[in-house]
Amino acid sequence: MILKVNHTTTYRYGQPVSICHNEVHLTPRASARQTVLLHELTIDPAPDTRAARKDYFGNDVTAFSIHLPHRTLAITATSLVDRQADDPIHPGLTPPWEQVRDEVSRHESKDTFDAFQFIFESPRVKLSPAFAAYGAESFAAGRPLLEAARDLCGRIFTDFKYDQGATTVKTPIEEAFELRQGVCQDFAHIMIACLRSIGLPALYVSGCLRCSPDSIGAAASHAWVSVFCGNFGWLDFDPTNNLMPAVDHVTIAHGRDYSDVPPVNGVALGGGKQTIEVTVEVTPAN
Fold first, then answer.
1. Could you give the angle at the alpha carbon of 238 between the alpha carbons of 240 and 206, nearest 5°?
2. Which terminus of the chain, N or C, has less C-beta within 10 A?
3. DSSP of 49-89, one letter per residue?
4. Which residues lie closer than 8 Å to 120 by C-beta, 6 or more apart?
5. What are the pLDDT digits (tens) for 10-48?
6. For the chain, how far is it from start to end, CA to CA, in angstroms?
7. Are 59 and 23 in contact (CB under 8 A)?
C-alpha cells in the first residue's frame, strides 16, 4: 500500500525568538518492507543553515538553525511510502523466549551482538522487579517468544487506559505504570521495560498510523515496540492497538526510547510563552 504522510508541527511564541537550533526525525526509515518514494521537509521561516545526517541508529536526521527574529515556526514533512505487509509467522515456530535471551546474553553472532545493546536501561526506560514481574506473567517457561510477546501486548492494551490527559512527554514510566493510564509513548516504554527486565532486547519505534475509525493514536505521532526474535529478526508490536503493525504503520525512526528519536527537538533564545500544535495525517495515496 502506498501511503501519504503529512506531519506538521507549529510553534507560536508570545515574544520574538531571536535564534533557534533544531533537530528533526521526520524522514521515514527505509527497510525491506518500507520504501520511501518521496520526502520533502518544509521549514517556515526558511533556515539559515540546514544539514542532513544519519544518527547512531541509522535514522535520518535534519538539523537546522534560524537566525532571524520570528514568532511562529512551522515544520512540515510530506512523504510517500510504499508499505508492504510482513509475512505471517506461526507463533509456535518461534524459539522459546529463554533461548533468545541466552543467545543475546552470549552475543556470539552479529545479530545477537547488535541486539545486546537493547537489553539495558536507557534514559526513559528503567528496569525493575515490578516490570519483570508484570512481564513474567506472559513469559512462562518454554513459551514461544512471539506467543508470549503477543500476550504481553494484549495485557497492556487491556490493563491500561489510553488517556491523553493522564501523562505528559516528561512523565516517568514508573508513574504511568502505577496509574495504568497514558498514551502510546507510555505503553511502548512500559512494554520495553517489561521485556528488558527479563533480559529480552526491545526497541522503541517512532512512527505514524493510517487514519481509521478503529485506530487509537492516529491523529498524532505514534509509537510501538520491536522485539528481537532470533532468526526471525525484529518483530513489531503496538500495545496501544493490540496488534502487530502491518501496512497501516509507517516507521519513522527507532532507538532505545523516545529520547533518542523525538520528532522535533531544539532550543530557542527568547520566545516567552509558547504553544505547540501537531497534526499528523496518513492516508492512502491517490
1. 100
2. C
3. EEEEEE-TTS-EEEEEEE-S-EEEEEEEEEEEEEEPPPPP-
4. 127, 196
5. 999 999 999 999 999 999 999 999 999 999 999 999 999
6. 11
7. no
